[in-house]
Structure formats: structure tokens, C-alpha cells
From TrEMBL:
PANTHER family: UPF0104 MEMBRANE PROTEIN MJ1595. It comes from Rhodovulum adriaticum. This is Uncharacterized protein (TIRG00374 family). The chain crosses the membrane at residues 47-68, 138-166, 178-198, 210-228, 234-257, 269-286, 292-314. It is a multi-pass membrane protein. One of its GO terms (cellular component) is plasma membrane. Keywords: Cell membrane, Membrane, Transmembrane, Transmembrane helix.
Length: 331
């Protein structure tokens, strides 16, 4: 009997939404507090440098990132044998962004539910998509961070270990035999939940669909292009705010802060990413008003832009998955 992914109950979705909004409010209060303490007028003056054209360009570069990663999702979806459907896969990927601000981003597993409804593909075949997508992001970000550190004039304390951790985690997550062995050892150590560990082993072995070198190379290229677009956006933003610290230094700070925020486990890295970004920009010699303004703008045009896109696409994806699901069941 095939297991289907657990469906997020409306009450749970409301809980995640309230948590997300509460964290956003806390971060916003923190940023406003910092701006007030360091000079609200100075921060407002920095923000006034940006007009609609500048914001549109930042959003456009973020969109490049999302499109590149959506194409990578489509690539992985084809590898597990999903029927052709580029628009379907892009719809699933973008719709999942609404759940980006759930703890550990586990809410994005809603994409697996949509796949199950629309194609009938069982969980043990589709769930590895979520894992390999996260691993591909870690590989791309680790490579970009390593290159940025090598090419930037200044280093970031702790960045190399973080890049190594991200790359190591990604390597483990994309090695079917290694991951299956880790699951087996964990089961032997705990000695409980045999059915759950059996499912985990099956999903680990299913990663073999993505082990083809050509697929992995293309996935890494798409991921690097996407995340470099956001690094470029951060650099351009700093230049507009009168703080040109160099493309590679800006990219290193952006990627490091994003990874550091993810390590906190907080929804969307909220709090951790902002704190790391402000601290690193301040260490680069930027005045507080510039650091706060740059951090606030880049987070709105990346994380919150993605959530906004997800909010628009999610209802469409949910409705179409139900409609297609009924058609699949009636065949």
C-alpha cells in the first residue's frame, strides 16, 4: 500500500501563517529599532535613494534565481519519471514558496502532495525531489561562497567552515548508498520505528535517479546562475546606497548570511540572516544606516518577494491539483 504525504490541515496552515507573520513582525520591529537607535532620518535617506526602477531591477534578478531553480526542479522531476509538464512543475515550484517561511522550510513538501494528486506518483519516488533540491541549493551556495572568498579582497570569519559544512551535507544527501547506510545505522542505534526507517531507506535509494553526472552538472549550473543573480542584486543595491564593497565581497556576505540564517532553523532564516548580514556589512566599515537599509531591502526583494509569488500561485496550484487529481482517480 502506497503512503501519501500528510496533508497539512487548515488549522496547521493557519498556525504556520501566524508564526510567519509573528516572526516577520519581530524582525521588522528589530530593524526599526536599530534604525531609530542609529538615526532614523539617515536610514530613511538611504532608502529614499531607491526608486521604482531600482526596485524592479532587484525583483527581476530575484526572479532569475527562481526561474533557474524552477527549471532545475523540472529537470529532477523528469528524472523520476514524471510525465512531461514544464508549466506544471514551475507552478508547483513557485506555489511552494508560500511555505518557505515554515520551520526548516518543510512546508514546501506541499509540492510532493501536488505531484501525488496530479500524476499518481507514490511518495517513495517523489519525496527524494525535495531532498535533492535542497542538496543542489547547498552545493551551488557552497561553490559560490568558496569562489567569492577566493576572489574578494577580504575574508569572512567562519565562512569556509560553513561552506564546507554545506557542501558536505549536500554530498551525503546525494549519495544513495551512503545515505541509506546512515539511515540503517541510525535505526540500529535507536531500535524503533521500523516502518519509518524502511521508508527512509527506500527514499534514500531512490536518489540514484539523480546520480547521473550530466544531470548533477546541469543542476549545479542552474543553481549557481540563480544564486549569483541574487548576489549581483545585493552588490548593485550596495552601489546604489553608496557602499561599493565589490561584487565578490557582497556576494559572499549575502550567501553566508542566507546559509547562516538557514542553520538557525527559523522559518525562512528570519532573524539569523538579518543579524548576520548587518554584522558583516558593519565589519566592512559600512555605517549602520546603510547596513540596515541594505538588509531590509534585499530581504524584501528576495525572501518576501518569493513568499508573495507563492501566495499568488498557491491557490492556483491547489485548485488545479484537485481538479487533475479527480480526473486521475476517475480513469
Amino acid at each position: 500500500m502506497t503512503m501519501t504525504p500528510p496533508l497539512p490541515a487548515p488549522r496547521r496552515r493557519w498556525r504556520d501563517t501566524v508564526l510567519m507573520l509573528a516572526l516577520f513582525a519581530l524582525v521588522a520591529i528589530g530593524l526599526f529599532g536599530l534604525a531609530a537607535a542609529t538615526g532614523w532620518q539617515e536610514t530613511a535617506a538611504q532608502l529614499a535613494r531607491l526608486g521604482p526602477v531600482q526596485i524592479a531591477l532587484l525583483l527581476g534578478l530575484s526572479l532569475v534565481n527562481y526561474v533557474m531553480r524552477a527549471l532545475r526542479w523540472h529537470l529532477f522531476a523528469r528524472r523520476i519519471g514524471l510525465p512531461p509538464g514544464l508549466l506544471r512543475d514551475i507552478r508547483h515550484f513557485f506555489g511552494g514558496f508560500l511555505m518557505s517561511a515554515t520551520p526548516g522550510r518543510v512546508g514546501e513538501m506541499v509540492r510532493i502532495r501536488w505531484i501525488r494528486r496530479e500524476t499518481g506518483v507514490p511518495l517513495d519516488r517523489s519525496a527524494p525531489l525535495f531532498l535533492v533540491d535542497r542538496a543542489a541549493d547547498l552545493v551551488a551556495m557552497a561553490l559560490i561562497l568558496g569562489a567569492a572568498l577566493a576572489l574578494s579582497a577580504k575574508g569572512i570569519t567562519g565562512a569556509l567552515p560553513l561552506a564546507g559544512l554545506a557542501l558536505g551535507t549536500a554530498v551525503v544527501a546525494t549519495r544513495p548508498r551512503l545515505l541509506a547506510a546512515i539511515v540503517t545505522l541510525t535505526y540500529r542505534a535507536l531500535g524503533c520505528c521500523p516502518r519509518i526507517f524502511a521508508k527512509l531507506r527506500a527514499m534514500a535509494r531512490a536518489l540514484r535517479h539523480f546520480s547521473h553526472s550530466g544531470v548533477l552538472l546541469l543542476a549545479v549550473v542552474l543553481g549557481c546562475l540563480g544564486w549569483m543573480a541574487e548576489g549581483l542584486a545585493f552588490h548593485i543595491l550596495l552601489v546604489w546606497l553608496g557602499a561599493d564593497i565589490g561584487l565578490w565581497t557582497a556576494t559572499a556576505i549575502f550567501v553566508f548570511a542566507t546559509l547562516a540564517g538557514g542553520l538557525t532553523g527559523a522559518p525562512g532564516g528570519l532573524g539569523g540572516a538579518e543579524a548576520a548580514m548587518i554584522a558583516l556589512l558593519t565589519l566592512e566599515g559600512l555605517p549602520p544606516e546603510t547596513s540596515i537599509a541594505a538588509t531590509a531591502v534585499i530581504r524584501v526583494t528576495t525572501l518576501w518577494f518569493a513568499i508573495g509569488l507563492g501566495a499568488m500561485v498557491f491557490p492556483v496550484a491547489e485548485r488545479m491539483s484537485k481538479r487533475t487529481g479527480h480526473a486521475v482517480e476517475n480513469r
